[in-house]
Amino acid sequence: MIFAILTMAFNVFAQESIVPASFKYNNLSLNVPQVELQKLDNQQLMAADVAKGKDGSPLQIGVMQNVYLVMDKCGRVDLLPDGGKLWRLNLKSEGAVSVDLHLANVEIPDGAAFYLYDPYREDVVEEITNAELLNQTDYYTDNVPGDELILEYYEPVDAAFAGTFEIAQLGHVYRASRLDKGYHGDSEGDCHIDVICPEGDDWRDQIRSVVLYKIFATDGIYMCSGAMVNNARKDGTPYVLTAKHCEKPNATYRYYFKYEATDCGGTGSVGISVFGGVRRAYSNTSGNSDFMLMEITGNISHLITSDMYLAGWDASGSTPGIGACIHHPGGDLKKISIPQTISSRSYYWRTVWYSKGVTEQGSSGSPLFDANKRIVGQLFGGSSFCETPQAPDDYGKLSHSWTNNNTSNNSLKLQPWLDPDNTGRKTLNGSYFYNVGVKENQPATNSFTIYPNPSNGRLQINAKGMEGDAKCSVYDLVGKMVYSTSVIVEEGISLDLSFLDNGVYILELNTGKSVQTSKLIISK
Fold this sequence. Notes:
- The protein is built from seven helices and 37 strands.
- It has 524 residues and is mainly beta.
- The two termini are 41 Å apart.
- The protein is 8% helix and 39% strand.
- The strands form six sheets. Strands 2, 5, 8, 9, 11, 12, 13, 14, 15, 16, 17 and 18 form a twelve-stranded antiparallel β-sheet that branches. Strands 20, 21, 22, 23, 24, 25, 26, 27 and 28 form a nine-stranded mixed β-sheet that branches. Strands 1, 3, 4, 6, 7 and 10 form a six-stranded mixed β-sheet that branches.
């Protein structure tokens, strides 16, 4: 079974450790009904992709299979000792490298949550509450490695209303031949350089700005590369610069951070993802720079923002000194390429690589940094591969995208977004997220009271300075989430964490407007 292999490859990469409601009860049956979808031919699907060129469309890595299942007509329902309701369903798409779900017509009350994990309960990838839904009725989940998953829905006894949802589609990711290279796809060539290798030592900040993002469209799942960019106001707006040809009609997006190797030439991390983004500006007409500026709209975890870098840029148009390109070729773990030459064309920069890495389909939208470590363009086309490292790649000039031939339409140029106060500046250095004057979502320690502390695991939280709904999460000292739940802070918060081992933890309350943390000691 594909899942068994993936488990060996990815067990060490846990994005966040979340505790689903069902895991807290030892007497619940693990016999969950399964819905198995029509078997797909991965090789045939990948063969069809070969005909697609490097230019013109993003890299397809999966397909969406229609499911149309509703909660009251499938799955298993258990009533819990506390009166809550638990619903579970197993879905399988044989041969998939990873699977995800499109949930539609979602309406769930406060306190309810979805959980997504594998049938062996080793990879719990996501908890979905109203905070993640952002008042939307459609949601595309994160990946579960392997070809089957369990969707769990928990609803508390005192829920304001009965939740409803539909499993509209299952995503079947098929593009991966070497599982140690990731489960969003992999590169075709073997000349790529992991960012953790020595070639990345001068680019550690810029590496943290680069993301892989998945594009969920009606005709399939696609991926491209992009980079978080700073703006002259330095207000932390989460902009992503990428290529317009990566866009698909009526698509939705999920952005992956820290999806990179943990040792040079080795295996890597599954990364941490955020769902939701919108296009702010773009241009891809003939003779133009093929850029797109997106803004992430989802809730960005502090596990991302704690070291998220917003890259600087240079819109001057001066021919750049030799820098680097950082990207995800073929959906692979993050790579770095060092060009041999950079030359100027009317609206793009042309690079030739030779020996320090190349790009592939999937690298589209990735940033070209100059010698000053500022972005000067984004990849929109080219013909380099490991077999032809001397072939050129083309990057749309950020200087051209800045005003796009002095258009008056703000949605067709970068300047109104990256210089919103019209200061006239043409260069800006990069900054870490927490160093750019962000007023909200700043972590604050000891801003609420935990008692008793130390605790045997049963504790109370007094958060008089906060109000509204919040997500309460507990992390160990290496940043792994070990518990998460939704709370209403005005009502007082009681937690039973007695299942945790003795030790020091960080307890976080996230209202969406502020993130506050405090140290918790468990001693039993």
